[in-house]
From TrEMBL:
Lineage top rank: taxon: Bacteria
Ranges that cross the membrane: 63-82, 88-110, 131-154, 199-224
Taxonomic lineage of the native organism: Bacteria, Pseudomonadati, Acidobacteriota, Terriglobia, Terriglobales
Keywords carried by this UniProt record: Membrane, Transmembrane, Transmembrane helix
Name of the molecule in the record: Uncharacterized protein
Amino acid sequence: MTEHCARCGAALPIVDGDTAAFCAVCGLPQLRVASEAVIPVAPASGDVEPEKRIDHPRLDWGTGLRMVAVVAAVGAIAPSLLPGAVSTGSAGGLSLLAMPLLTVAAVTLYHRSRPRREISPVIGGRLGATLGLMVGAWIAFLTGAVGFTLRYHYHSTAMDNALQQGFDSMMVRMQEAGPQPPELIGFIRSPEFLAGSFLMGHVFSILLLVMTGTVCGWLAGALLRSRRQRLTQ
């Protein structure tokens, strides 16, 4: 096959059975490199794209908060729909009993929505603690909303009566234990003490929900991680 000069396009003559190294018209050297002489050059370490990790050790808070918010709404609103659950203060107790199931549901939903993310006891504990905090906030909001509606819209004192009955029973037990100073009795019966006790009760309930969610989330994360390790082996 006749080759041509890269500059002038003239046909290159054949010299000793091979194409001439110089163009006979313009004198341009005709450089050719054999394919065997090409040495592959490895790219620098900085040019190599890092492999995509399948497991991300950090918690995806965006997805986690969405999953936890849905489960918390279900776990707080469902017990509140029972007759008298909010007015008597039993909604928080029912949510506390359901916390193990709610935490497992939240951690499982997060793991299934982000299968490439790492699941661990620490991540499960964080999700469980957040779930307990959200459930406690829902219970406090629903209790306040129901109490406000009963008091100022329906002019009902159902929640006040339930709270007063609890304090009356406490006063009876205190008097059975022995005579109490009148100042202490007056302080316990004051509206400030009643309101403070009501708020402290909610704070204590939220702490119990957070602690229960943390423990159950830690266990759920450990179980899901061990299951994932068995499946990948």
